[in-house]
Design a protein that fits this description.
Number of helices: 5
Order of helices and strands: HHHHH
CATH class: Mainly Alpha
Radius of gyration: 17 Å
Number of domains: 1
Shape: globular
Number of strands: 0
Oligomer: single chain
CATH superfamily: Flagellar protein FliS
Length: 141
């Protein structure tokens, strides 16, 4: 692993460890969108190995999102999210078989919408008064 990859891994680890539940949900959606985009590109290049790798990652992302649901306390919202995640899984599997980039684009759009919703909810939850005052050139530590 090169230095850039190690740095990126460390950044992602830090980002995940410091995330609120809403931010974590948004990060998961971001990862899903990333891998959906890679799957579309791989299909367009007829790169079966890369497409398969991306489909595996997409499946892992959806499973993780589903795992994080609290069905006991989440009520109807959690149940609706679970149905949405099942639909994403179905669409991804069908897209994989048919090499259908339109299905992947629909899932990516839905993930993007949900990601934006989680991000907005996080901002509302912490309040608009918590804005970073960090400026470029400030000393850290």
């Amino acid at each position: 692993m090169n230095a850039y990859a190690r740095s990126a891994d460390a950044y992602l680890t830090q980002r995940v460890m410091g995330a609120s539940p809403e931010q974590l949900a948004a990060i998961i959606m971001e990862a899903g969108q990333l891998h959906l985009g890679r799957a579309v590109q791989a299909l367009e290049r007829n790169d079966a190995a890369a497409a398969t790798s991306s489909f595996i990652r997409i499946t892992e992302v959806i499973k993780e999102a589903n795992f994080l649901l609290n069905l006991e306390e989440g009520g109807e919202l959690a149940m609706n999210l679970q149905r949405l995640y099942r639909w994403w899984m179905k669409e991804t599997m069908l897209a994989s078989r048919a090499k259908d980039t339109n299905r992947l684009a629909a899932v990516a759009q839905a993930m993007g919408d949900l990601r934006q919703t989680w991000e907005q909810y996080h901002v509302q939850k912490v309040g608009a008064t918590r804005v970073s005052t960090f400026q470029l050139g400030d000393q850290v530590g």
